[in-house]
Amino acid sequence: xxxxxWLWITLGITLLILLGVAGFNAWIDPLWTFDHAHRFNSIQAxxxxxxxxxxxxxxxxxxxKSLVLGSSRVTYIDQQEFGSGxxxxxxxxxxxxxxxxxxxxxxxxxxxxxxxxxYIGLDFYATxxxxxxxxxxxxxxxxxxxxxxxxxxYWSLLSFDTLEYAWQNLQSSRAGLPVNFAYSRSNVKTLQPxxxxxxxxxxxxxxxxxxxxxxxGDYEYASIKNTLQTLQQxxxxxxxxxxxxxxxxxxxxxxxxxxRLPDYQRWIKECVEVFGQVYDFTTPNSVTRNLEYFYDASxxxxxxxxxxxxxxxxxxxxxxxxxxxxxxxxxxSP
Length: 334
Known about the structure:
Structural class: alpha/beta
Strand order of the largest sheet: 3-2-4-6-7-8
Radius of gyration: 22 Å
Strand content: 5-15%
Order of helices and strands: HEHEHEHEHHHEHHEHHEHE
Number of strands: 8
Helix content: 40-55%
Distance between the termini: 85 Å
Shape: globular
Mean pLDDT: 93
Number of domains: 1
């Protein structure tokens, strides 16, 4: 066999492999650059939520009335449970206030119009200006620019990293079993109960980390007021609905032990000063005192997220505990 023929055979085999990889990746679509759904891609790992959700908004070309922002605590709230729909849940792991404006700007650009309502779930730990998170993420511009790179939607299909996630998604979807921290093709995230022993271990680890890293040590209060005022000025025709995320009462007690209650009250006051009101789900109530509602000390199960969505969007839901979701206005603000 001469060298020229061998070269063409090699190139042909390589091309077939690449086309097979690209086709499989497109079929499963782990990077969310397409919009098709079928039984073999029904469960999607949320391995890079910032990129995946940015991709989804970039390429699906849908229009939404409302937007949801927040950290992983908010990712488990079903976007379909908000009353002012259609709604897109753009919450991602450890989203911090400085990211809000850039992600809202880009979501508006993809949406083709401003949102009528933007819901923002706020976490008290994010008020620590010296906070060092376990996972480091790029600025919003990185994920936005990646999604907008020429040909990104198609070049990413040739990635063997993408292939690895596509294969995992296929196996999960074929099994048909809910997977923790995974999404449906409708951007709805699952969180499955585990054993009491595992929950106890997770809660203990949470309390230790928050006490030493989030509320203790070199904690320095970082005002959220300028961030919120920027959003208000940039989008004066949008109604912003703020709510604090629920945490288990033992974790709230760590705020008090660390001497951060005045900072917590200041945080609430700043939110009210800008937008007039905030729903407070963090202060102890019958839900936060019941660990059955929690996966760990800082994440509630999606059923509680549904209560939050109904409460903040004005849906009448008699199943919501009476003391869950205290609306604080200027008259109530500390």
